[in-house]
Sequence to fold (612 residues):
Amino acid sequence: MCGIVGYIGFRDAWPIVIKGLKRLEYRGYDSAGIAIINNNGFSIYKKAGKVSVLESFTEDKDRTGTIAMGHTRWATHGAPSDVNSHPHSSNDQRLHIIHNGIIENYGTLKEELINRGHEFKSDTDTEVLIHLIEEVQRMEQTDLLEAVRVALNSVIGAYAIVIMDRENPGQLIAARKGSPLVIGVGDSEYFIASDATPIVEYIKNVIYLKDNEIALVKREGLLVKRLDNVIQTPMVQELELKLEELEKGGFEHYMLKEIYEQPRSIRDCMRGRINPEAGRIELGGIKEYADKLKNVERIVIIACGTSWHAGLAGEYLIEEYARVPVEVEYASEFRYRNPIITEKDVVIAISQSGETADTMAAIEIAKDKGATIFGICNVVGASIPRVTHAGVYTHAGPEIGVASTKAFTAQVTVLTLVAFYIAQQRGTLTTSKLTSLLTELNSIPQKIQTVLAADNLIENIAAKVKDSRNCLFLGRGSGFPVALEGALKLKEISYIHAEGYPAAEMKHGPIALIDEKMPVVFIATKNSSYEKVVSNIQEVKARKGIVIAIVTKGDTEVKKMVDYCIEIPDADEAFLPLLATIPLQLLSYHIAVMRGCNVDQPRNLAKSVTVE
Fold:
């Protein structure tokens, strides 16, 4: 959630770190700070608010130096404030730390340290950690690397940390457990960051630190060891990320750019995996488990937020075409109960970032119970692909907007491929039927391009309902997860209260809310439940609700009874989530812009939820 950027080398460090923090703003934060070793020795600058506030505050300060570390904080322990901002310092002001994650046993540690004479300035768990490291170094009379290693062995929780030492200014120490950290490898220079976005313009090669690893970083080299003191040989990987993918490309917001990228991202997701002419799917990432899938008795999908909605769409697809029972679980709930999981089960974990803390914890529980774990992830080199048995990348490209758009449709695309692949192994789809489905799936990017052409119409509809305080989204079958995702997008970025429901459940409560001020969005395409949805629309209109309907192109029946219609191309019901989601993304976007909301960085939200 928080952002980390560090640099040690021969360049001017300040512009690298400040620019890097701006690239990490999408992760969500409430304060920012930088520590830099400069001509006057050492300086820490930190302020609550945006990175721009920090930048303005330091305009007349000494910002020279070739070693620096910066941080954007998303508050957990302690309210957003200058004092609680990172970096934090040890009791003697020698050591300084930036930290992502949560130290769960900080209360006990803090009490012990206070009894030993330590005084704390902030309310954070992070300050406790750097005081602990200081105390270990004092007691053990050892170097800083060893003090960090020993201290981290007594810490419970998650962390990605970078540490500076005033008395050893030629080094940085980094470590991780449960929170991502990447080290960019240059020529006599190193970069450290939460993810690769802040450093991609400077280097091509990176090292992804693994859990329980510590790195001693100097200009002349790098040493990596585990918490058990075993030296490691880190694997250097070439970055696939391209700098141009991080720019807005002429769009007003990243979210709008990413909505318009979906024809391309879905095409990339399918590339090399489908052969419509032969009626075949090849998923190399899970190929060695083909026999397991052929005989699987149950699939459990675990995810959070938008990824959970994608999982619901996957449930419909897998049960319909592969005829395998599917359960979809919130990872945050799954991990805190005693789920019934066996070695016969396949668990599919979905996460855009591949770092979602609850999903990571749920994976470990399922692995301990002997299940086979597949990952669906967008970020190459992330944690989830490393801890799962196999998986499939979505290849959506970097998604900067906090509200997920192209990542959702890419996840649904992968789940569609997985459903058809399992059906192919189990023989529950004939070759002719699979050929037909794959041919149509191959045409979905072009059909999405057609939906995007309705942007002006959707913007006009948005203007009519932008001042609403509440909104309902209703759908049946695979339209239900679309309704849930549409409601989530609206509440995330426009701050309008919105709920998604199965359309049939409207009469079991939500109908009480409907009046002449209530917009109700229906997924009303021509599919197996079309007539039922038409009846639901009539029930809303009888109570004077404002109805916005997503309909199949050419539909005249629904058009006569609703206030606003948005047409999408006709397609097999399997592909409804891919098409019907697009206009809801645009509707939410335009409403948020008209309400003056920060579309790319909604309040209180973070892109990658790496804490519980």
In short: The first helix runs from residue 13 to 23. The longest strand covers residues 95-103.
